[in-house]
Write a structure and sequence with these properties.
The chain is α+β, with helices and mostly antiparallel strands. It folds into 4 domains: 143 residues, Winged helix-like DNA-binding domain superfamily/Winged helix DNA-binding domain (Arc Repressor Mutant, subunit A), CATH 1.10.10.10; 101 residues, Winged helix-like DNA-binding domain superfamily/Winged helix DNA-binding domain (Arc Repressor Mutant, subunit A, Orthogonal Bundle); 59 residues; 66 residues, no CATH class. The protein has 16 helices and 10 strands. A 3-stranded antiparallel sheet has the order 2-6-5. Strands 8-10-9 form a 3-stranded antiparallel sheet. A hairpin with a 2-residue loop joins strand 5 and strand 6. Helix 13 crosses helix 16. The longest helix has 43 residues. It is flat, with a radius of gyration of 27 Å. The protein starts with 18 loop residues before the first strand and ends in a 7-residue tail after the last helix.
Length: 420
Amino acid sequence: MPDTQIDIDQLTGALRRETVKKNVAAIHISGKLSLLQRKLSNVLLLNAYDALTTAQTHSIDARTLAAIVGYNSNDFDTLRASLRALAETVAEWDMLDEQGRQEWGVSSLLSFAKLKNGVCEYAYSPALAQKLHDPKIYALINVHIQRNFSSGHGLALYENCYRFVRTGSTGWWSLETFRKLMGVQGSSYYESFKHLNAKIIKPAVGEVNKSSDIVITPEFRKKGRAVTDIRFLIRENPQMAMFQIDDSDGARGMDVYKALRGQGVSDRLARQWIAEHGEDYVLQKLDYMIGQGEVKSSVGYLSAALRDDYQPKTEPIAKELSPEAAEAVRLQQTVRDQEDAAYHHRKAERAERARKLEIVADLVSRRNPTQRNADKQLFIASLDGDLERENFRTHGWHSGLNASAIIAFWSELEPTAFDE
């Protein structure tokens, strides 16, 4: 099915966030979920999370749900089948409670689900809802990254590894436990480590490393010649950092980005450097390189300067300058001071713009669908150029090109909204 693109401005509440708190009990499930069913489970939890322990049922527009997960928005047969699978899938937890006592439990992932009048309504059992909401034991699963996965085994491995990213390793799992986590327990075919490695481990590891924000490396423990246990070493994937940049927040509008492009740095690498190192650090190394005169390769030199933190050499004590030279130094310093002041002013303007756009996002989320559609049409009609209108249709209220117009528009609708 096509990977439908989502306009985030159509989403409200918890769905505007990128990550869902995924409790260990929910990650370790005994069912054999398909890729789309696993994605569906994550999105439903994200939608319900804020009211998980206070509301008995939760609801979401069915077409929005299908589109976020990656279904064709009209394919309700597949959506119904996936909801049925979640209701038939068992989650099992075995952990210590607050008093240190062992607690074991089992529940279906969904206690019920129904589709009516274009709305999906669903619920969790009270016991499972408490476990899903427990802030002490969860992983943060990025529901945007999960859209990159094309196999259920790859996504299952990502979910089970991501919560260990801070410790750097999953710890040892028996192969029996690993088969259960991958949903292939009970299969005689996968009792063979050769088949398990070739069909499950290697493809899933490859997909996690290619499609997600972590890089994992499997290690095996043997008893004699037989593999008995597996663990995964985990580190963050710096190549995915650039995907966290929201260009509508002005990444490509930054002066440092434009300066990097002027030095021949590619769009992708420029955004990656800004994401990894921050605007100030990259600008510092760019200024350093320019101060060195001609270099053989700007990209290569900058890469090394960022990696190895090149610093200017300490200048020897200067001799007394002539009045002319002193005046030239003074003028140079004045120019630098003016440039620094202009830079900090632009930085403050960007921060203020980002603050106001966050307020706009909150204002939009509070309006009903009819009001949001009317607001969009009214704003588009106020734009003069085709470029501005097309940019707004693509990025909605996050449009960096139209930021000033957006803030002015909402200032008229909500005169006190941006008051500090």
